Automatic annotation (TrEMBL):
Signal peptide: none annotated. InterPro entries: Bact_polysacc_biosynth/exp. This is Sugar transporter. The keyword Coiled coil applies. GO terms for cellular component: plasma membrane. PANTHER family: FERRIC ENTEROBACTIN TRANSPORT PROTEIN FEPE, TYROSINE-PROTEIN KINASE. GO terms for molecular function: protein tyrosine kinase activity. It comes from Sulfitobacter mediterraneus.
């Protein structure tokens, strides 16, 4: 019956057939894990748990509840964050006055005008920026001298105290302040941005009135232009001062050399000793030629006439006179006649040549100094630095300052950071106890 197959034609359900098959199978023996318990021991042996020392067991956790330190944290948050933010917001929206900004941007330019030869050769640079002058101008924008000059032109005290300091003590200026106070307030009202790569300077001027902001920006631009012009004048004067001094020294040296030569000519009554020397040499040559002719004539007379012929005595006298004249002329060219106070031509020529050398050297030095001075002046005329404003002072139509939302957000964030740091410090100290 148990092995009888399932017949679908018989009226027996499939479920009943399966139950019959399961009942007919033999039961499996239980798995033996160990020795069987004795029949007289009804309960298994108990396993003892390890005992935990009493000092390691803490008290049971209590339910969380609000303590005094929690209320102190909430109170400190209100005092350090909420209250300052409320005070700042009230001041910014109720007491702080609107401010208008005027923008101006400029740079220092250097223009070089090249000569016609450089233009034909293609070697020219029409313009460029001078970074050193721009650095000087950037430092000048925050100097006390500029603040004083602009204050003399537009009265900064009246402009920045248009709003009473009693009503707006943060952004208004007290007109009773010193020049140092005015300079400190200048740094708050003037914003300067300098790009060292391009040499451009952006300037932002704030005031309670748009016209006042534009006036201050224009005054700053004019004073900066005047400062750059003064730097250009100083540079030009420095570049030509040395050459001008050299030229003056060369002119004075040339005057002294010419004056000495004039005194020599007045003293000796000789314009050019070299010409007189040539004349004396020509005279000596003539006398020597006449002496030669006289000697030849004397020899002929001795050969053709008697000893007592008067022509022989006359020829001999002529020879003596020519020799005496030659000796006199030689003494003039050489040693001279000291008894008569006459100077030798050699001495006069030496003195004259020394004066000529001094004059020629002075003329050469004068020519070189004059050329250097003219070249320096031409170089100064070639280079010209000036202040170029590519953005003129603007006139604001809407108040952009103070940036109330931005200031309130920064103040709140700063207060929150301060409160967080205090909380961390408190809990660190508390955990160490």
């Amino acid at each position: 019956m148990a092995d009888e197959p399932f017949d679908q034609e018989r009226p027996v359900s499939k479920v009943r057939w399966l139950k019959t098959k399961v009942a007919a199978k033999p039961k499996a023996e239980p798995l033996k894990l160990g020795p069987a318990l004795p029949p007289d021991d009804p309960k298994p042996p108990e396993v003892k748990k390890p005992e935990i020392p009493q000092f390691l067991v803490g008290p049971p956790a209590q339910p969380a509840r609000t303590r005094r330190r929690h209320w102190l944290l909430v109170l400190s948050f209100a005092v350090l964050v909420v209250l300052p933010s409320m005070v700042t917001g009230f001041y910014l929206w109720q007491r702080a006055e609107d401010q208008y900004a005027s923008d101006v941007a400029f740079s220092v330019r250097t223009e070089e005008k090249s000569s016609a030869i450089e233009l034909l050769g293609g070697i020219t640079e029409l313009s460029g920026s001078s970074s050193s002058d721009t650095d000087i101008l950037f430092a000048y924008l925050s100097s006390q001298e500029l603040v004083s000059r602009v204050n003399d032109r537009v009265d900064l005290r009246a402009i920045w105290s248009r709003v009473s300091p009693d009503n707006d003590p943060v952004f208004a200026f007290d007109p009773k302040g010193t020049i140092e106070d005015l300079q400190a307030h200048w740094d708050r009202k003037i914003s300067v941005v300098y790009d060292s790569g391009t040499g451009l300077i952006d300037l932002e001027v704030r005031a309670f009135d748009p016209q006042d902001a534009k006036r201050v920006a224009q005054a700053v631009l004019d004073e900066c232009a005047a400062m750059i012009n003064s730097l250009s004048d100083i540079a030009q004067e420095d570049s030509i001062r040395y050459t001008r001094e050299e030229l003056e020294n060369a002119v004075e040296r040339l005057k002294t050399a010419r004056r000495a030569l004039t005194q020599f000519r007045n003293r000796t009554q000789i314009v050019d000793p070299s010409i007189d020397t040539q004349n004396q040499m020509g005279l000596l040559v003539t006398l020597q030629q006449q002496l030669a002719d006289a000697l030849i004539e004397y020899d002929l007379l001795q050969d053709t006439t008697r000893d007592n012929d008067p022509r022989i005595a006359q020829a001999k006298r002529r020879i003596d006179v020519i020799n005496g004249r030659i000796g006199s002329e030689r003494r003039k060219l050489g040693l001279g006649n000291e008894g008569e106070g006459e100077a030798a031509f050699a001495t006069l020529v030496g003195e004259y040549e020394g004066l000529i050398v001094d004059r020629e050297f002075a003329e050469t030095a004068y020519t070189a100094a004059l050329a250097a001075h003219d070249s320096a002046q031409a170089e100064v005329r070639r280079q010209s630095r000036y202040l170029a404003a590519h953005v003129k002072p603007t006139l604001a139509e809407r108040a952009e300052f103070p940036e109330r939302s931005k200031l309130l957000g920064l103040q709140t964030l700063f207060s929150f950071f301060v409160w967080s740091i205090f909380c961390l410090i408190y809990y660190s100290l508390r955990d160490r106890r």
